[in-house]
Amino acid sequence: MKPLYWNRIQIQDQNNNTLWSSLEEPDIINTQEFEDLFSKATVQPKKKPLSDQYEKKNKTRKLIKLLDGKRSQAVGILISSLHLEMKDIQQAVLTVDHSVVDLETIEALYENRAQPDELEKIRKHYETSKEDEVKLLDKPEQFLYELSQIPDFARRVHCIIFQSVFVDSISSVHRKLEIISAVSKAFLDNDSVKDVIGLILAFGNYMNGGNRTRGQADGFGLEILPKLKDVKSRDNRMSLVDYVVSYYLRNMDKNAGTEKSVFPLPEPQDLFHAAQVKFEDLAKDLRKLKKELTACVKEVEQVCENSSEEHLQPFKDKMESFVSTAQSQYETEDERLQAAQKSFQDMVMYFGLKPKSGEKEVSPNHIFMLWYEFCNDFKSIWNRENKNISKERLKEAQQTVQKITAEKKVETKKTNANSLKERLRKKEAGVSSS
C-alpha cells in the first residue's frame, strides 16, 4: 500500500475531551476495494493477500484471540496489505535481499513483530492446545507466530534496517560537511572574494571620509553586507551593491559579458545550506551512529553464533562487509568533521568575527546567512549587468563592422598606367582634343 505520512497522535488519558479519545474505527472495511484504489504500482505478479493463505475458519465456532483488540486489528491490516507468502519474507530476511520484500515492508514487519509477552501467550497456546484449537487461532496470532519462527528474526531485521539507516545518515553528514568545508575554503582561498571585499572597503572608506569613528577602516563587520542594497545613490536609481557589481565587472573581470565570466563569490544556495549546519548536531549524529554501529556488530556476531550452517550465509558475508565499510566511513566523516570545524574557525578568524552578544562562539548560521543575503543580491545584479555588457559589446562590434564596410565602399582604386584599358582611354582623350 502507499504510505500515509501523518503525525501520529496517541491518547494517554482516556478521560480527555478530544475526538480521538472516543473515536472508534469501523470493524468492517472493504479491503480489496481499498487496495485497488491505494496500493502501490508493482511489476511483480499479483499474489493473494497473506491473510488469504491462512485456513478459512468455520464461522460457527468462535475464533481464539490472544491479542487485545487494537493490536489484533493493526496486525490484521498489515497482513491484508501484504501480497506475499511467508516464504518470501523468510527468504528476504535470511538472505538480506530487498528485491521481493522491500525495506519499507521489512520495517513494518519489525515494528509489528510479537512482543515477548504476546509471543509467550501464543507459544503456550501452540504447545498446550489440541490441533483443532490451534486451527481456531485468529490470523494475527498465527502470523506473529510464523514470523517468530524465522531464525533470529528480530536481530536479523534490526541489522538490515540499521544498514539502510546508516547509509542514509552517513550520506547526510557527508553532504553537510562537504558544503560547509567548500564554502569556508572559498572564502579563504578565492582571490575574487578578496577583490569584492576590497571594493566594498574602498568605497566605504571613501563615503565615510575623515569620520573619526567610521573612516579610514582596515576592515568592516560583515553585518553591513545585507544592508548595502539599502544604500542608494543620490538620484535613487542605483544601490551600492549595483555599483560594486558594475565596477567589478567593468574593471576587474576581463571576461565580463562572455560565457567565461565566473561569479566571484560562493553560490547563494550553497551558503543557505551551509547556514543550516550545526557542528554540535553533526557530532551528536556521528556519536549516535557509532553507538548503533557497535550494537549492530554485536547483533551480527550473535546471529552468526546462533545460526545453523544452513542459514548462516549470505547474511554473515553481507553484514560483515557492511560493518567493515561502515566503520571506515564513520572514521572518515569523523576526521572530516574536525577538518571542517578547523576550516570554519580559520575563516572566522580571517574575517575578525566576534560572537553575537550572549553566545560563546560564531555560528555557521550567523555568518553564512549574512553572506547569503548579500550574495543573493549580488548575483541577480551580476547576471543582469553581464547581459548589459554583452549587448554593449555586440553593439560595438556591429558598429565597427559597419564602419569598415563603409570605408571600403568609398576607397579609390589605383589604376595601372600600362593596362590596355588605360592606354585606350588616353588615346581617345588625345583624339578628342585634336
TrEMBL record:
Alphabetical keyword list: Coiled coil, Nucleus
Protein name, entry field: Formin
GO molecular function, one term: actin filament binding
SUPFAM superfamilies, per database record: Formin homology 2 domain (FH2 domain) (SSF101447)
Region (Disordered): 407-434
Compartments it resides in: Nucleus
Family: Belongs to the formin homology family. Cappuccino subfamily.
Gene3D superfamilies reported in the protein's UniProt record: Formin, FH2 domain (1.20.58.2220)
Pfam families documented for this protein: FH2 (PF02181)
GO terms for biological process, alphabetical: actin nucleation; cortical actin cytoskeleton organization
